[in-house]
Each structure stands twice: as C-alpha cells, then as structure tokens.
Amino acid sequence: MALNNTYDARLVQQETAVGAGVQILLLALIGSAIGMGPAGWVTGLAFAIATWAVLSRALHRAGSRTFGPANRVTLGRATLVGGVTALVADSFQDSPPVSLFVGLTAVALLLDGVDGKVARRTGTSTALGARFDMEVDAFLILVLSVYVSMAMGPWALLIGAMRYVFVAAARVWPWLTAPLPPSTARKTVAALQGVLLLVAASAYLPHGVNVGVVALALALLVWSFGRDVLWLFRTHRATQAAPVTVGRRARRELVAS
Questions:
Q1: pLDDT at residue 255 greater than cutoff 70
Q2: Are 25 and 76 a contacting pair, CB within 8 Å?
Q3: Which residues cross the membrane (predicted)?
Q4: What angle do CA 197, 198, 201 make, to 5 degrees?
C-alpha cells in the first residue's frame, strides 16, 4: 500500500513538472515569434518555477494521490497566464503584438469556467482545486491591471491589488476569513473584471471609453468587496454579541428564581 501511495505521489509531482515544462515551451514559442527581451524571459521563467514549487508543496501537504482532470485545466490556464505575464513584463521595453496578447488572455478567461464544470461532472472537486483556480484568476487580474495602468495611471492597479489587500487584512482581522454565502452577483463581478480589463488592454476603443470601462470594473469590484466585508463584519458582531446576550438572560433567570 505504501508503494502505491508513493507511486501516486510521484505521478502527481510529475504532472506539475510537465506543467512547468509546457510553460517554458510556450515562452520559447513566444520568444521566437516576437523576439522577447530579458525582462519577459526572466518574469516568465520565475512564474513557471514559482507555480511548480507552490503547487507541488500544496499537493504534498494535501496528500493528493491524483492530480485530477479539473486541475489539469487550471494548470493549462496557469500556463497561459504565465505567457501573458511574460508579455506584460516585456511591454515595459516594447509593446507586445495585440493579437497575441488578446488571444492568450481570451483563452485563459474562456477556460475559467471549464475547470469548475469538469470538477463537478467528474466528482473531483477539492478545496485545493478551488484555491488553485482562485489564485490563477487573481493573478491574471493583477497582471492585466498592471498592463492597463501603464496607459491609465496607478489607480487601475487597485483592481488587481484589492484581493491581495483583503488577504493581508484578514491576517489582522481573522473574521474576514469566515465563509461567505454563495452569491451570483459576486461571481458575475469577478468574471467581468477580466473581460473589462481585456477590452481596455486591447485598445480597440477610444482612450476615454477605455478609462470608463476600467472605472466601471473598479466600481463593481469595490461594491462587491464592500458588500462582503460588511456582511462579514455584521456576522462577526452578531456572533460576539450572542454569548453576552445568553449570559445576561441566564443571570436574569437565576435572579428571578
């Protein structure tokens, strides 16, 4: 039995290594196509190594014996995000071809809903898979906001940074880590972020319209985060107040008796 577990664990690690290899192959294809500079190469390689290291450690800690079809889709999306990241890093020296940038990003966004459906249909939904999917989404939004900010100013970075600020705040206020109720509005706003940022990044529309598109994305995100934080705060206050209320009621009953 131990041998089987070891064998399965090695297969899982091999899949993450294959993912890193595919990432490097994609970088090589992009580099040969556009003549990518050192910044793009270094950033892309760093992304590939970091993804492999973090994912391998997470799978080991979770004791995963199989990688799963949904995680394979997410890993494919991560590979595309790595390509987009390299293009954005390279854009500080030279603008990337719009068609390549839009193509990689669009496919990564389209695949966003595929991994979840695959996980549900195959019965392979896991907390690790959901977290992997969320982190890939969040990083793509961060990279797109960096690219858009070069044309619109630092305020656009708030879109990509907001989720990471929320995570940092949760270390100070642990009540922010409480589970949230399902919300279609939250999912819709999250999905719109990538679409709206890609529309602005493509520069197909006039600059003024693109500014409005990014401002809309930011406004929707502020509303969504604000609503969730308010719900978490009220729930936290209610939870804290409940023991006090019960204690007072018990004391009153004791005095009355």
A1: no
A2: no
A3: 20-53, 211-233
A4: 85
Cα(243)–Cα(126) distance, integer angstroms:
34
* pLDDT digits 0-9 by tens, 54-99: 888 888 887 777 778 888 899 999 999 999 999 999 998 888 889 9
Q: Identify the band that residue 257 occupies on the pLDDT scale cut at 50, 70 and 90.
A: low
Token pair 């619109």 in the structure block, residue: 152
Tokens of 230: 């308010």
| Residue 232, pLDDT above cutoff 50 | yes
Four-point Cα dihedral 167, 49, 4, 62, nearest 10: -10
Q: Are 90 and 96 in contact, with CB atoms under 8 Å apart?
A: yes
> Tokens 């989404």 belong to which residue?
137
DSSP string over 103-143: HHHHHHHHTHHHHHHHHHHHT---HHHHHHHHHHHHHHHHH
CA 138, CA 161: separation in Å to the nearest integer? 9
Query: Minimal CA–CA distance to 165: which of 108, 71, 229?
Result: 229
Torsion-angle region of 125 (φ positive above 0: left; ψ -120 to 50: alpha; else: beta): beta
Contact 20, 48 (CB under 8 A): yes
pLDDT tens profile 185-211? 999 999 999 999 999 999 899 999 999
> What average pLDDT does the chain have?
87
* CA dihedral over 213, 30, 132, 233, signed as positive or negative: negative
Distance CA 8, CA 6 (A): 5
Model's pTM, two decimal places? 0.87
